[in-house]
Amino acid sequence: MKEPQEMNKAKALRNFLNQVNQFAQIVLVTDEEVRHLLGEEVTTAVANLEHFSKEEQICSGCGGICCNDIGCEIYAPQFSQCPIYAYRPLVCRLHFCHRFDAMHRSMVIELRDVFVDCFRAMNSQDNQKLRSLDSPPLGEACPEFITAVGPWIESVRNGRLEPDHVIELIRSEAEKYRNACSCIIGAA
What we know:
Helix content is 60%, strand content 0%. By secondary structure, the chain is mainly alpha-helical. The protein has one domain.
């Protein structure tokens, strides 16, 4: 993969601040929502790094170091993949660890800077939605979701439930959470 030119981080931040209020929530977001929030340049960079990660088994082979470091409540080593991969938070989407080689390091730093810029912007606005950028842990941003899935995850960790079945349950619960948030905001 060829290293891209420097990312327009100011444009990504402007786009984020201009678009964020159109969203009922920004904790559990899809690829398309990230594209809408941060722009094509950011989503292309993320997709390129994720492709490289899959080819080289960077994230799948790390043993959950990043997930543990950020305190992700839904991480369990028994899961073959992130249970909310399709809805993962921005911090998870824009974080790539030191295991990416030197050729990709500048892109990793650029994405980190985009996240940090968006995170800093939340400090200048009194907006609960922007404060949810600091997730995971997800408990403060979406406690209903974590309350619902927590027992299943604990059962997987203790070997009482099949991980693949629980992944499906968690995905369904994530969709319910997203739909409930949309309905609440739409009614306001």
